[in-house]
Amino acid sequence: MTLTATQAKPAPALLPRAGGLRGALSDLFWRKPKLLLLLMLLPPVLWLGIVYIGSLFALLLQSFFSIDEFSGLINRQFTLKTYGDLLQAANLDIILRTVTMAALVTLASAIIAFPIAYYAARYARGRWKALFYLGIMLPLWSSYLVKIYAWKLILAKEGILTWLLAKLHLLWLLDGWLSLPIVGGNSLSVSPTGTFIVFVYVWLPFMILPVQAALERVPGNLVEASSDLGASPGQTFRNVLFPLALPGIVAGSIFTFSLTLGDYIIPQIIGTSRLFIGQAVYSQQGTAGNIPLAAAFTVVPIVIMGFYLWGAKRMGAFDAL
Amino acid sequence: MTSAVSFQKVSRHFGSVRAVDMVDLDIVPGEFFAMLGPSGSGKTTCLRLIAGFEQPTSGSISIFGERAEGVPPYRRNVNTVFQDYALFPHLNVLDNVAYGLMVKGVGKLERQKAAEEALSLVRLPGYGARRPGQLSGGQRQRVALARALVNQPKVLLLDEPLGALDLKLRENMQEELKSLQKALGITFVFVTHDQGEALSMADRVAVFNDGRIMQIGTPEDIYQRPKTRFVADFVGSSNVLPPDFVQRYSGQHRWGSLRPESIRIGRAAKGDGVAARLVSTNYLGATTRLALDADGLRLHAIVPAGAKLPREGEAVMLTFNREHLHLMDEPA
C-alpha cells in the first residue's frame, strides 16, 4: 500500500472548480453547450446576414425602382417597369446566350471531368493521387487574369494552337470550324468557341473534385458485382457508376453553371463583342448608370440557380458536397 | 465426369507475393465445397479466379470443361455472394435481384416475376420495394443470395457470406444455405476462415495456407486425419505432438495429432499415462477447456461440463485411447 502511504490524505472524488471567471465560464459552457455554439456563430452569422445577404437584398430592391430616362436619376417608387425592359429582345438575347453557354460549359466539363475523376478515385494511389490533386489545384492557385490572357495568346491567330495545327496540316479543320455561323469568327480568340474553351478550362476543377468525391464513395465491389451479374463495362457504367456519380456531377455543375452565368471577364477578353449577363450588369451599373436594370439582370442568374438548386436537391446532389 | 471447376497448377502472383501458388483443384458438380484457411492464405484469390475478377499468372482454369482464362466475369455463368453483399444502394431490393436478368435483356414483367420468386426462395417475399439500406444484415445477405441465384448460375461462389452476422443468425443461415444447396443442386464454393462453418456445411473442404492447398477431403478426413501440423492445429485446434513424444506411444517417429476431446484426466500417479500439471481451466458452457503442461509440452483437453476437475496447479495423469493418436504425413 505504498500509494496511500505517500499521500497525506485521500484524493477527493470531485475536484474543485478552477478559480476566477475562467473556471466559472468553463463550467457554464460545459453545462450549456448551445450557449457556446451561439457565441461562436454570432459574428459570422451577423456578417453573412447583414453585410452579405443584406447588401444583396439592397441590390435586388433596386430592380423594382426605375430610371428617369431624361434626367438619369433613379425614381424610388415600386414598379415592374425595369423587368419590362429586361424582357426586350436585345436583353433576352443576352440571357439566352449566357444560359446556353453555361449549359454547354457544364456539359463539356462533366464529360471531360468524369474520366479524370474516375481515374483518380479508382486507380490513383499514393504519389499519383497527390499528383492528381496538385494538377487539379495548381491552376486554381495562379491568377485568373493571367490564365485568361495566356489563353488569349494561345488561341490568337498567331498563337501556338494555329501554329500546331498548321504543322499537323490540320489548319483546314480550324478554318472550317471558324467559318461556321454562331460558333465561328476571325480567330479562336474572338469567337464564341474560344470563350467556351476558356470557360471549360477555368471551371473544370470545380467539376472534377465533386465527381471524384462521389466516385470515391462508390465501393469497388459494386462494379465487380455488376460485372459478376453479367453486365458489360458499358452496362455497368450506365446502370451503376453513372447513377451513383450523378449527385457529384450535379454538385459540380452547380459550380460550373453558376460561375459561367455570372462571369464578365472571360467573355470580355476572349470572344465576340456580344454581351453576357455579367457584362450587361457591369455596363449597366457603370457607363450606362442604370442601376435598376443592372439589378434586374442580377436577378436572372439568381432565379435560374434557385430553380437549378431546387432540382439538384431533389436528385440528392448535396449528399456529395 | 467433367469437374465443375478445375484448377491445374494455377498461380496468381501480385509482384513478389504468391497469393496462390501452384494449386490443383477439382470441384465436383453439385457439391458444397469449402475453402478454409486463415486470412491471406489465398482462398479468396482462388474464388476471385473462378469468378474472373483475377486472372491466373500461370496454370489453367476450366469451368465445366471450358477454359476460362481471359474470359471476363460478365461472360461467366458463375455468380458471387460478396462478403459485404455489394447490393446496389440506388436500386430497391427487387431491382437489385432482377439486375442480372435486366442486363441480359429479360423483359420487365418476366424479370420481376423471377425476382419475386427468388426473394420467396430466400424467405423475403414482399420485400421488393425496400431499399438495401433499410434491411438488417441478415436480410441483406439473403437479398445478395437471391440476386445471385436468380441467374441460375452453374457455380455459386460465396465469399465469407456469414462473416458479418451474429452467432445465432449465422447458425440459422448455415442450415438454410445447406438445404438450399441440396434443393437446387447448384455447385456451391464457399470461402471461410471459420473451421466450424466449413466442417458443418461442406461436402468437401480444402484447407489453404500460404497460397497452397494443405489438404482436401471430407470434413471427417480433415478433422480426424489431418495430414500436416498446420491442418491439425487450424482445424479444431488439435494437440500437435512432436515425433519424440509420439514414438513412446506408437513406436513411430512421426508428428502426431491428438484431439482435445480424446484426452481423459485422471488422478496423479495412478495407472500409466502422461504426467502433467493443470495450468488453467476455461469454462465454455457445454464443455470446459483445460490447459495442461506435460513436462514442457503444452496440451489442451476438453471435458464435458460438470466433470469433477482438479484445482489449477495440481498434478494430473493424462490418458487417451491409442487409436485416437493420429500420425501425420509430414516428415519428422
Describe this structure in words.
The complex is a heterodimer of chains A (321) and B (332). Chain A has 321 residues and is mostly helical. Chain A has a single domain (91-320), classed as MetI-like fold (Orthogonal Bundle). Chain A contains 15 helices and 2 strands. The radius of gyration of chain A is 28 Å and the shape is extended. Chain A starts with a helix and ends in a 7-residue tail after the last helix. Chain B is an alpha+beta fold and 332 residues long. Chain B has 2 domains: 5-231, P-loop containing nucleotide triphosphate hydrolases (Rossmann fold); 237-327, OB fold (Dihydrolipoamide Acetyltransferase, E2P), CATH 2.40.50. Helix content of chain B is 28%, strand content 31%. Chain B has a 6-stranded mixed beta sheet, with helices on both faces. The mean pLDDT of chain B is 90. Classes of the chains: A mainly alpha (321), B alpha+beta (332).
Averaged pLDDT of chain A, please? 88
Radius of gyration of chain A: 28 Å
Biggest sheet layout of chain A: 2 strands, antiparallel
The averaged pLDDT of chain B comes out at: 90
- Beta-strand percentage range of chain B: 25-35%
The poorly predicted ranges of chain B are none
Q: Give the biggest sheet of chain B.
A: 6 strands, mixed
CATH superfamily placement of the largest domain in chain B: P-loop containing nucleotide triphosphate hydrolases
Number of helices of chain B: 9
Strand order, largest beta sheet of chain B: 6-7-8-3-9-10
Number of DSSP E strands of chain B: 18
| Total of domains of chain A | 1
CATH superfamily of chain A: MetI-like
Task: Classify the secondary structure makeup of chain B into a structural class.
Answer: alpha+beta
How does CATH name the architecture of the largest domain in chain B? 3-Layer(aba) Sandwich
